[in-house]
Amino acid sequence: xxxxxxxxxxxxxxxxxxxxxxxxxxxxxxxxxxxxxxxxxxxxxxxxxxxxxxxxxxxxxxxxxxxxxxxxxxxxxxxxxxxxxxxxxxxxxxxxxxxxxxxxxxxxxxxxxxxxxxxxxxxxxxxxxxxxxxxxxxxxxxxxxxxxxxxxxxxxxxxxxxxxxxxxxxxxxxxxxxxxxxxxxxxxxxxxxxxxxxxxxxxxxxxxxxxxxxxxxxxxxxxxxxxxxxxxxxxxxxxxxxxxxxxxxxxxxxxxxxxxxxxxxxxxxxxxxxxxxxxxxxxxxxxxxxxxxxxxxxxxxxxxxxxxxxxxxxxxxxxxxxxxxxxxxxxxxxxxxxxxxxxxxxxxxxxxxxxxxxxxxxxxxxxxxxxxxxxxxxxxxxxxxxxxxxxxxxxxxxxxxxxxxxxxxxxxxx
Length: 414
Description:
alpha+beta, Cytochrome Bc1 Complex, Chain A, domain 1, 6-stranded mixed sheet, 5-stranded mixed sheet, globular
């Protein structure tokens, strides 16, 4: 048997199984991804996916919530759940010998959750607290506003929903939503680490193939680009928070990696332009960053800064100036630092099972295949300053969506 094996296959039930098996690895990780999310929620039931995901572990036909939790703890599982625009993820990292038991527990939760009134009440209460907490977190509030403005009313939805919709959710509605969507054809299972591929494939098919019938991954969300828009939310805060977003190359595009280079040049660390010129040398902001947001068929670069209200207009102008210049004039040393950071991040994500399983799931989701590490590294090595300029030319920072939060009323349209 080979020391390493990459695979991506469709099981008889319609489940997609992707993995990276490494012989002798003592740990394993699994990520179960159902292809439905906030974009699919009815307008009167926003937040129902997150509540449903929480209700799964509030008790099943055979186990109480405590017994389910004890079962995961007994095999040393480190778990996490994430609800997104397109899908909902359930992940766990375990010692290799605990992988099969972990899959059994997830299958029981997915297929036998009782969705009782008390469990639903607890899940709703937690969601409501999280919604209220956003109002006390300026950066979280700002990005919630930004995505709604930049991505539109469906793709820009917050996973938490709204107080008015979450508070009205019934246990029956939550159960119906889960059972309507949790179908084998909508499930991607990603596995990494030490495991027996035929055995795990058979187990996944037997456990999860019987939960519902049919289903598909669905089409990528429609994305017409970021609008030229601006919004100011007035708040009595000590700082003015600014966020900017513009369209860039999506996953699968020939300039996808060039878009990530541009993101790193702008805000990829202490040597990045935004950090050096706005925060470090300029002392104009106490926090500044830049990142990449990807959906199937869509890519965006966003920038954020928090500054004093009196310097907000100046910082905004500098953000726009650096964004415009970075793609046109990437310096050789900036490109090489970005390359080093991306190579290091790719290698580290491949070495740890908990990040490798996410990488495999991402490849299966966006590329429809699982690629070896060396192929990814070679693509990164091949990115040139010309590619970055080409990315900025094909995806210029226009239109630009701008959102501010704080005491200042300024909004400048560029």
